[in-house]
Amino acid sequence: METKVKDIIAKYGVDPAQIIAMLQDLQSAKRYLPEEDLRELAAILGIPLAHIYRIATFFKAFSLEPKGEHIINVCVGTACHVRGASRILDELERQLGVASGGTTSDQKFSLETVNCLGACALGPVVVVDQEYHGDMTPGQVDKLMENYR
User: Fold this and answer.
1) At residue 12, does pLDDT exceed 60?
2) How many C-beta atoms lie closer than 10 Å to residue 135's C-beta?
3) Residues 100, 49: Cα–Cα separation, whole Å
């Protein structure tokens, strides 16, 4: 069976300088970076596994844990916080049954917070799969989630 790692190597070649792009593709395909794939990538590239782990753990965009099909980010920066971001986060946690940083048991949703999305004028802001939803209220959370269930 052809693995995703071999597809990635075919795309980028055996070039350790392309490791971040390779990890991005792997994460995109599997929604996280599985250990066995990182070991395979290290072996093919001829670099220490620890080097790949340093990169994978340095950037917040990479995850060593499985993520949900939909990633929900709630901005908790100052502007969003004063406009009620914590109430929106509470409502999302209640509806999904997971705390911030968690993934639902069906692997459908991962709920995360971010310190600033740079969209302060739209606050409070919730981003689902790179789609921004501004001026959110706790009462709008249910309707928002209907689009992704």
Assistant:
1) yes
2) 11
3) 29
